[in-house]
Amino acid sequence: MRPFNFITAExxxxxxxxxxxxKNAKFIGGxxxxxxxxxxxxxxxxxxxxxxxxxxGQIEKVDDGRIxxxxxxxxxxxxxxxxxxxxxPVLSRALLAGASGQLRNKATTGGNLLQRTRCQYFxxxxxxxxxxxxxxxxxxxxxxxxxxxxLDIDDSCIASFxxxxxxxxxxxxxxxxxxSLSGTRMVPIGDFYSGTSMQPHIDTVLKHDELITRIILPRxxxxxxxxxxxxxxxxxxxxxxxxxxxxxxxGSARVAFGGLAPKPWRVEFAEKLLTTxxxxxxxxxxxxxxxxxxxxxxxxxxxxILKTLISKHREL
Amino acid sequence: MIFxxxxxxxxxxxxxxxxxxxxxxxxxxxxxxxxxAYEQQPTQKLVYGYIVGAEIASGQITxxxxxxxxxSEGVIDIITYQNVPEVGTGAFLSAKALGGPHIQHYHQAVxxxxxxxxxxxxxxxxxxxxxxxxEAGQYSLQSRAASAPLSKSGSFRPDPVSSVGNFVSAFQxxxxxxxxxxxxxxxxxxxxxxxxxVAYWEKDMLHCWTGVQQLNWGVRDLAFALGVPKEKIRxxxxxxGGSFGVKGTVMSDTVLAALAARKTGLAVxxxxxxxxxxxxxxxxxxxxxxxxxxxxxxxxxxxxxxxxVSGNIPGGRPEAAVxxxxxxxxxxxxxxxxxxxxxxxxxxxxxxxxxxAPGQMALEIAMDELAEKLKxxxxxxRIINDTRxxxxxxxxxxxxxxxARCLERGAEAFGWHxxxxxxxxxxxxxxxxxxxxxxxxxxxxxxxxAARLTLQSDGxxxxxxxxxxxxxxxxxxxAQTAADMFGLTPADIDVQLGDSAFPESPGSGGQWGAxxxxxxxxxxxVALQEKLAEKVGASLHDLSFSDGLLIVNGTSVSLQNLxxxxxxxxxAKMEYSEGRKEFEHQTFGAHFVEVEVNEITxxxxxxxxxxxxxxxxxxxxxxxxxxxxxxxxxxxGAALMEELVVDERLGFFVNHDLAGYEIPVHADIPQQSVxxxxxxxxxxxxxxxxxxxxxxxxxxxxxxxxxxxxATGIRVRDYPLTLDKLMTKxxxx
Lengths: 316, 733
What we know:
By secondary structure, chain A is of the alpha+beta class.
């Protein structure tokens, strides 16, 4: 870990000004991933800007029935929120499937969106990793890849994205509010993650001088919500494959997957097949999958999870 | 004192020994006042060391550029092979604690950066530039297995070959056969407390606090490493936060802390950062095992063949996976074989029930496969093949052997009769249910052990030995032992452990700790009683002790009075007669498991576990139960998730942190119960007790594997049994 400065921002404007002035500054929320990365010098910010006192800790109802989640709201608080539990249970369930109680008490909504991959080669600074050190190569390709991505990858990187929460947000069509000194923009979560780009060190469209301020959930969409997470142990493990799924009374359904790609994986145009032709859905939604010997079970597993959720829903 | 056989003695009263006792060190543990190595605060100026691990698996250091690191804030010194005398190897491990220029394995320590604070040392370590020349190495056990030679006999290296009768022809002619290959992965000890040391020198005398299980090994090997006499090292390990074998002797933290302390003249504190532990220290080596069982239709085994190959660095030991097969079941024709491939992975060494745990992971699945072929209940099959005599030495019996009782008792308590003999028959919703069983066997060695008993002037008794408590409850059982001998309670006894200045014990390892160290304390108690007898002018036989009083010929005197003119101290050592070799000394058990397997995703959830253990007198049933429960958790990890993944191109364990190397969490742990068979072993020691810490692990993983088969009809012979393996096999069916 490199020595660094730490400033608790007094306001959002203060935070934005600090980050605009320092190319090596980073915001810190709960620090549950960033501090690990700093200890390993995968991240080496010269300045940490604590945003815990910038009034981003609220969950609020917007007038039109939408919900705005402040970026500093902890995973525990978000999962326990009554509006979320009633109207967006898939989000609550995804959050509770992630990490441990201690981590969820500290981890924030904004920080969760920005988690880095859990690829082991990313965390070992002696190994080549394009995500950590652009141009150094990818040790994971041809190495230990069981946990890694099979979709939206290329030769430069096969890392998977670890968040459970983001998978639920993707199926809910959440929007992310990004604020900088030059203004505010709203980014749909489907456009937030870069995916394949030949620039694996860039995970999202977030610019250096932008702060995630709020995550906006659309008006309650009703239906039956499911979050299914498959992993090697019962708790405190990243998903091998997970699925966030919502069934509507009109027979339509939507689904997003975790563990398959460098971002939450959702293929909207195929969703009309979800309740009519699963094989065809799988063929369309997972076309172009590039599995290794070690992770080729992930697509069949994803299909099995889909089948499970569909039959669970039928049994309701 | 020389031990052969225990007659009727004070421990048969089961007054303190044999009764559940709270840990005497419990209050210290739960209030955070038990001082572990890293928490020691010596009076000397204290600085911090940070160990740098090699970034290649095989090759040479071609250059070290320490300019930037040296000028980093707070840096006091940087120690590499270039500026200290060559480090020697110890008697137990073959890897050097400080590598360079030759690198033996990935993350071998190549430098220690010393700075005023931990953070400064860590920051400077990352700017230390080390240039390497990579050389080709052997990293694949699978590809080296065929050409691997037999291992060699020696210390902790059993004979590589054993043979009785004519295995080949008996197996060929057997009516029913199992002939399968099983694999177990490299495993990490993954203990809670990483290796840590505080070291400083007083002139030529080295003082260190560390977490070594066997202080006599630690001192011996540190002396070899540093090239100093053993007498010039004082090592202390009063508390150890888990170890499972990987702290059997000193590792890089101790050697480099000592080197850094010598070079800087300061007290140096070092802990291994978690991501370094798996590759820098040691692990349980992977095995490839070929098991061949031949039986008559009535279930009698006629042929047992068990061959295992494991890998290690040059000079390393084999994983003795066939060892327990030599003692477990009867068969007239038998052959076992251990091979050892040279690999350039980190060094493989002892991990809880070394050899026995992975060996039974293979053999006990094979027994389940045989039972199915024979259409005999797996519990029954094991009982049919039980033996009173040592299978390879039929003139020898076991000092005590209750394997069949364990199996019968467990089957009854677990409700084994509810198991369907046909797999895949029982279901609850999407969850397939199944039950599995395994025998368990683990050696019961004892080693000479010494202690000092002191009657203090305040009337309290003090026990001193260099024995350790690795979380097992040693403090308590030694207090129990002395309490029974003097008619006191454990609260009247002060036990001091983990100091090499105290009388020598064999430490904690190999499941020998409890039996050996209590015997040493017993001997010292007798020696002290002899002194007291002399003081009151009586014979030892006329003395008795009760409630803090010495009673002789109807009159009594308080212990405190006896010591009023000064404390009375006695040292003694327990040793064992050659007669011990007349018997095989083993502990036995049976594990029963119920699992549920998701029929769609193949996630496995263990629902119930039962262990029945046969280990002589159980000195402290509360602590012993803890040990067995912990072993069952570890066995669950071995069955379902634990694997150090080898990158066979780059030669290292990739998942070298606790996010990547998954061990069970609370949510994985079901209802667990432990039953101890009520028996004593008169040949085990004065307390008639044997160890249980490693027995609790052996047999757990195969019982789970067998339960998964019973639930699903899918047989996986490659540990851990992860859902992808089950799914792949299910799709192939």
